[in-house]
Structure formats: C-alpha cells, structure tokens
Amino acid sequence: MDDVLPDVLAPGLKVVFCGNAAGTVSARRRAPYAGPGNCFWRALHEVGLTPVLLEPAEFERLPEFGIGVTDVCKVRFGSDAEVGLDAHDPARVERSVRRFAPARLAFVGKRAAETALGAPLAYGRQDRDFGGAETWVLPSTSGRARRFWTLEPWRQLAEAVRAEGSAAAG
C-alpha cells in the first residue's frame, strides 16, 4: 500500500512530530496538518520552533528548522474512528527513529503515543525513550480535539530544544 502522506525525515533532526494518521483534508491536499481547524503550524510558530508561520503546503521546509513529521498509520486517513488500529505500524516509526536519530520524538496526540508505546500516558516528557529518541506526548492539534488543547506541553518541548542548542553552543 502507498503512504497517504510522505514522511519528512532527515538525519539528526531536533524533533520529529508523529501523528496518528493523516486527516481527510490533509490526504486530499497531500499536506500534513492541513485541516482548517488544525493548529499544528500555528503551534510550531507560537512556541518558537519555526521563525515563520508555515502553511501546510510548505511542509517540505520543516528540515530547515530541524523538524520532521511522520504518522503511526501511513496507509489510511480520516478520524481516529475511521482509521482504526489494525493498520498502525509503531515498529515502522521505531525503525525510522533509529535510522534518522532525531534528538526527540513528539507524539501529536495521546492516540498516536499510546498506540506506539502501549500504555496510557500523560502529556509532556516521558520517562522512557522510543527508538533512542527522547519521547514527548503533546496534545493533538486537530480541531476535533480542541477540548483537550493546551499549548503548555508544546512550550516545554520548545524550551528543551532551545536548551539543547544552548548547551551545544557552550
């Protein structure tokens, strides 16, 4: 089966964001986080991970900022209920993380994280790595998950990324 959306991965990224699966609008537009109510791109900019507010169609620029994207399910799209769980492939995500060795893997939404890590999780930095990367769970940016939305875990992740940059410079 072909991937609904391509991964955007490169060696040594600061953070790779991993969603559950592409939404319907994202699949149609062939761009991640493209739904009209999705705040992924705004969140990246607001917390300072991108110096400009990118449009979904500019997703291939993410590595310029040390960022990558992937999904646990690459072969289906739609809501979590439409996608189901049988096409999820956390082993593929782990292989990609090991291959490209990002500093961090940030799951965008608990569904993606719990599918990959196999346990209920809280938002924020996790106490175990995934594929050798520091692991984070962030609130979903989907408009459907707005009642769970908070930017604070995103800010904490951005602070960790900046702290790593400061330590590397010093």
Write out key terms for the chains shown.
single chain, 170 residues, alpha/beta, 32% helix, Uracil-DNA Glycosylase, subunit E, 5 strands, five-stranded mixed β-sheet
Summarize the structure.
The chain has 170 residues and is of the alpha/beta class. It has helices spanning 24-29, 40-46, 80-83, 90-100, 110-117, 152-169; strands spanning 15-19, 67-71, 104-108, 124-125, 134-138.
How many domain units? Answer: 1
Q: Would you tell me the overall average pLDDT?
A: 93
Name of the CATH superfamily: Uracil-DNA glycosylase-like domain
The H-and-E topology, N to C, reads as EHHEHHEHEEH
Number of extended strands? 5
The biggest beta sheet is recorded as: 5 strands, mixed
Strand order of the largest sheet: 2-1-3-5-4
Task: Return the CATH architecture.
Answer: 3-Layer(aba) Sandwich
Notes on the structure:
With 170 residues, this protein is α/β, with parallel strands linked by helices. It has one domain: 3-Layer(aba) Sandwich (Uracil-DNA Glycosylase, subunit E), CATH 3.40.470. It is 32% helix and 13% strand. The protein contains six helices and five strands. The protein has helices at 24-29, 40-46, 80-83, 90-100, 110-117, 152-169, and strands at residues 15-19, 67-71, 104-108, 124-125, 134-138. A five-stranded mixed beta sheet has the order 2-1-3-5-4. The N and C termini lie far apart (46 Å).
Topology:
Elements: E1 15-19, H1 24-29, H2 40-46, E2 67-71, H3 80-83, H4 90-100, E3 104-108, H5 110-117, E4 124-125, E5 134-138, H6 152-169
Parallel strand pairs: 1-2, 1-3, 3-5
Antiparallel strand pairs: 4-5
